[in-house]
Amino acid sequence: MSVVQAKSIAVLSHFMGGGENLEKIFRESVKWRKALAVLMLFLAVTVQMIVTSHALAANGPSLTLTSGTYYSTAWPILWFSASSTVQLNSNSAIIQIDGQPISTTFTYRGHDEVNFDGSNYWVVDSYLSGTIVGTTHNLHDGSHTVTVTIADNNGNSTTNQWTITVSQIPVFTSPNPVNGAVTTDKSGFSVQVTDNDTIDASSIVATTDNAQVPAAFNASTGIITYKPTSGLSDG
């Protein structure tokens, strides 16, 4: 140790009240440095957790079509499941068919409970997942584009698209006479057919007693009529 260093320490020790006070100050400074280091480490870990959490949620919720892509009815009900690492926004669900919004509901995952009066109520099991249900309008046969959007409470949203196919089977109603009826009317029979698309008149085949007969089709009313030239035989 040089003479200058020794004099400097002596002067510092004199102003600090002696060597013991100087040593105490040094020990306290070491404690503060350790505490500061621990605090900085804690802050770094916390920031990393926040960044990681945000990164996990930044992709938005996931969506899955659970009701299938083929429907034999013009009024299919569409079901989707949604999940996220952040609470889902129950008011954000939107379903569109060919660009047009349809009636949409969202329900958090849960289960039914029974009240003392026998009525049911819904108990939420998780705010991170749920079911989206869409009620469609009268869809024509063919392909349709379904667009679904859902967001979480952090504002992260997901939009997915699917193609569904509708192929409704024509429905026969209002037969005259009705099946199994006993009638004296031999003038023939009629039945009404309905479909969500235009009926192909050339595809209509009418038979009596396993023999094909000519039938007339009224496209405006959907009624198919058969009138025999000599009347139907008994039996």
Question: How would you describe what is shown here?
Answer:
The protein is α+β, with helices and mostly antiparallel strands. It is 22% helix and 39% strand. The chain is built from 2 helices and 15 strands. It has a 5-stranded mixed β-sheet, with no helix packed on it. It has a 4-stranded antiparallel β-sheet with strand order 1-3-7-6, with no helix packed on it. A hairpin with a 2-residue loop joins strand 12 and strand 13 (211-213). The longest helix has 39 residues, at 19-57. The protein is elongated. It starts with a helix and ends in a 9-residue tail after the last strand.
Topology of helices and strands:
Blueprint: H1 3-15, H2 19-57, E1 62-65, E2 70-71, E3 77-83, E4 94-97, E5 100-101, E6 103-114, E7 120-135, E8 142-151, E9 157-166, E10 171-176, E11 189-194, E12 206-208, E13 211-213, E14 216-218, E15 223-226
Parallel strand pairs: 2-9
Antiparallel strand pairs: 1-3, 3-7, 4-5, 4-8, 6-7, 8-9, 10-11, 11-15, 12-13, 14-15
